[in-house]
Specification:
Blueprint (H helix, E strand, L loop, with lengths): L7 H8 L6 E6 L4 E4 L4 H10 L7 E7 L4 E3 L20 H14 L4
Antiparallel strand pairs: 1-2, 1-3, 3-4
Length: about 110
């Protein structure tokens, strides 16, 4: 769980699973994230246990080497929130996920 700016050691630890990218789930309300698991679902569960609400959790992959994001995860399929695919469809939500990710992980 990342609540404040991550250290290089934390980033390196999260990279151990996939090597070149990190699966993350961002709570756009609480401005925290969980990352480094094999599946987004595992990150999502950690945030839910910590008090996050499902409607605020969005999954993505982040590459620390290029600072690029891919907004695709099975946990993003939410017809009740007008998101019918694995890709985060809302530009506003994508922007929030990007801002929070760069604030907590970016530039390292």
């Amino acid at each position: 769980m990342i609540r404040e700016r991550a250290t290089k050691q934390q980033i390196d630890e999260m990279l151990k699973t996939w090597g070149v990218f990190i699966k993350i789930v961002v709570d756009i309300e609480r401005e925290i994230l969980a990352g480094g698991a094999e599946r987004h679902y595992e990150c999502e569960q950690e945030l839910l246990k910590d008090g996050s609400k499902q409607k605020n959790l969005w999954g993505a992959d982040w590459c620390p080497y290029t600072q690029e994001m891919v907004f695709e995860s099975i946990i993003n399929i939410r017809p009740s929130q007008n998101n019918r695919t694995m890709i985060i469809e809302s530009p506003d939500i994508r922007e929030r996920v990007t801002q929070i990710t760069l604030q907590l992980l970016g530039g390292l």
